[in-house]
Structure formats: C-alpha cells, structure tokens
Design goal:
Blueprint lengths: L3 H4 L3 E3 H15 L4 E2 L1 H10 L3 E3 L3 E3 L5 E3 L4 H13 L1 H24 L4 H14 L12 H16 L10 H12 L5
Parallel strand pairs: 1-3
Antiparallel strand pairs: 2-5, 4-5
Length: 180
C-alpha cells in the first residue's frame, strides 16, 4: 500500500505530481526551480514521469513550481531521509498528531473512552483518512486547521500556548488562501 509508483502504474498527474516534485526539489536541491535534475529524480521512482505539473515561468525563462510550498517544505525532511515512503510517513504522523490532539481536547470534557470514540468517529466519518496515500496538501490543510483549533480551544495551564493557534492558521492560509 505504500508503493505509490506501482499503485499508480508509474505515473501521476496534476496536484500530486506538482507536490511530489516540489518536495523532491526542496529535499535534494533546496530550491523551488523546476529543472532537468527534478525530472531525472522523479523518473527514478515514477517511470512515467509527472504530467499536468503546475509551473510558472520567470522573465529570464527559468521554470518554478506554481503551488504553495508549505506542505512540501514540511514533508521534505522525510522525503530526504526515506524517499517516497517518507512523504507517506509525514502524512501518517499528521494523522496521528491530529488524532492525539482531538483526544486530548475532548478528554477535557469527557471520560477517556468516550473521548477516544468521538475522536475516531470524527476522523473516520470524514474523508481525511484517505488523504494519507495522496501526495497533496489536503491532509496538511486538515492537519494545520485542526492543530490551530486545538491550540485555540485547549485549556493550557499557561494561556501563552494558545497563541500558537495563530501560527497554524497562518500556515493554513498560506497553503490555501480560502482557508481564511
């Protein structure tokens, strides 16, 4: 289930190819420029290569990725260490942390068993669990919005922790402006 290249028959398109390419470029080149090295690197894993990739051209003719890079930036260290599996690991960690935060938030108002049940019900009643296998920003957007809400509503002993909500909401808006 984690061999994305095999599952997708060696190719991918649109948002997935763009986010994968951005992640690989940030992880290995440290830039957002699309060049031959990016194509060679992508074709090592996805032999069909990317199609429908979102690019923009600078005045000097260089090509750059035309999607928000906040999700690829978060996934880049994992991709650098573990390749494509690292991106899925980052997605899995986001799911785990969202579930943990949901449980902690609900535990302030309910017993642990009910909190756990409500958290799992909320997560599996949505489509969020499917996004674990997608290399798109959808799961990241869910994660940063949920984390922002957690830091906004959780009753910390020190209220200064609640200010982290603003940082996560800012990441959500930078990732996708309609999150505002």
């Amino acid at each position: 289930g984690t061999d994305l290249a095999k599952a997708q028959k060696g190719g991918f398109f649109s948002d997935e190819s763009t986010y994968y390419a951005i992640t690989q470029s940030l992880a290995h080149d440290g830039d957002l420029q699309y060049d031959r090295g990016d194509i060679v690197r992508i074709r090592r894993s996805f032999w069909g290569g990317p199609t429908g990739i979102f690019l923009t051209q600078a005045k000097d003719g260089r090509l750059f990725f035309a999607k928000s890079y906040v999700y690829p930036l978060a996934a880049a260290p994992f991709a650098r260490l573990f390749g494509t599996h690292g991106i899925l690991l980052a997605n899995g960690l986001m799911v785990f942390l969202a579930l943990l935060r949901g449980f902690l938030l609900l535990r302030q108002h309910h017993e642990p068993g009910r909190s756990f049940f409500f958290t799992l019900t909320y997560f599996f009643a949505s489509v969020a669990f499917i996004y674990v296998w997608w290399i798109t920003a959808d799961l990241f957007n869910f994660f940063v919005n949920f984390t922002g809400l957690f830091f906004f509503f959780y009753r910390f002993p020190r209220r200064s922790w609640n200010w982290l909500a603003g940082a996560f909401f800012a990441l959500a808006v930078f990732s996708k402006p309609n999150n505002a």
